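Holo prediction. Input below; ligand is iron/sulfur cluster.
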Amino acid sequence: MNVYDSQRMSDTLGRLGYMPVDDPDKADLVLLNTCHIREKAAEKVYSEIGRLKQARERRRAVGADMLIGVAGCVAQAEGEEIVTRAPAVDLVFGPQSYHRLPDFLARAQAGETVVETDFPVEDKFAALEAPSERNVRARGVSAFLTIQEGCDKFCTFCVVPYTRGAEFSRPAAEIVAEARRLADAGVRELTLLGQNVNAYHGEGPDGGEWGLARLLYELAEVDGIARLRYTTSHPRDMDDDLIAAHRDISALMPYLHLPVQSGSDRMLAMMNRRHDRGLYFDLVARLRDARPDIALSSDFIVGFPGETDADFAETMDLVRQVGFAQAFSFKYSARPGTPAATMDRRVPEAVQAGRLAELQALLRTQQADFAAGLEGRTFDVLFEKVGRQPGQVVGRSPWLQPVIVDAPEALIGSLESVRITKAGSNSLFADLVSDVSRLPGHDGGSSYRAESFA
Ligand code: SAH
Ligand code: SF4
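Structure of the complex:
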């Protein structure tokens, strides 16, 4: 979501005449868009500000200058504290107010230190200007689109409800219009974003309320959009309509990120996740029934306060029973202001580290097994960019893995059938199956294999 927010900020800055540069030493303005979800992410901000201060001094030595801003969830959570700890900072603003960037910048340029952490009442997205043609083109083949923000669930470990605020769903018509604009500029794949994306309940063009499933059916009809994904979902909001959408919508990719955090019912209750492991198993079974080729990804927290060896064993058991194609796992990080931060029976760091290593070893094996199982299989890949080696193009499998193929660059932006020859540690290698002799500039030569499978 921070990537999407940064793009929208860059849209606004483009309208003000700013252009992106690749080096802070060349920048009149640097905005750090920050994450507060774990302590490590939040602490990085201060070391980064230190580096920017030096860049600013180098610029001042040659008569130029630089404004330094902190945006995002660290800004929201720490506000004024950031300026106290790092007086070099000129602007601090939270994720709900970046549509007011032109005003903030004008004030900062006039010498004011701007700190804005209120949750404004107006709809940020409606207030944002549409991105310029050039900026939309820069999104490439696959783009993010935020449809929902904030969270009302208050899991005991999590800062999101405090930094992103209450749950909000954008009206469906606004989302569809943005999707059309992206598709017109060459986007073929949309990833719908939300902290709780499947809690989406936006106003429909018919005045009624639309859920995520209804929105997905509509977006699947947008010309040019070949693939749809959404993230991140909460198990509690995986309703029947959404599961049916996985059966009915071929553009909806058979890959779902469904965080479970823990396999222990006791931990799930302490985390206030509002479901047990039974519900998770049930969802996985129903999703696999609706879409047999669906693969799952998840998030896990190890070492939540009070987690015993037996609780952790339940997590390992859940992972073995479900089988994940991919996953993110973290040591519990106490976040200021959250209920879990004051719970006792903290798990010692060494125990957390041991559990994380054990879990990650299992998840890595599952990921490798899933990839190896694709060797010899044929499916569509959406080509996104040129590869590291000359003559290579890189696309994504339906399950989000990078797929590397020797093929012409003209394939970027198209979906082509490939056959997997080898599963590497982070990507798949494949031969082209589609006949691409139709492509412009293609001489029908044999630098790649063009086979046709009946
Ligand atoms: N809305 C999503 C998750 C958003 S946060 C959901 O409900 O699943 C992304 C991930 O960061 C979480 O799934 C969790 O695994 C991790 N995370 C959040 N807070 C954390 C904390 N305090 N310590 C460690 N990991 C955390
Ligand atoms: Fe955080 Fe997700 Fe829980 Fe909301 S549902 S509080 S975003 S972990």
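The CA atoms of residues 156 and 271 lie 5 Å apart. That is the main takeaway for now.
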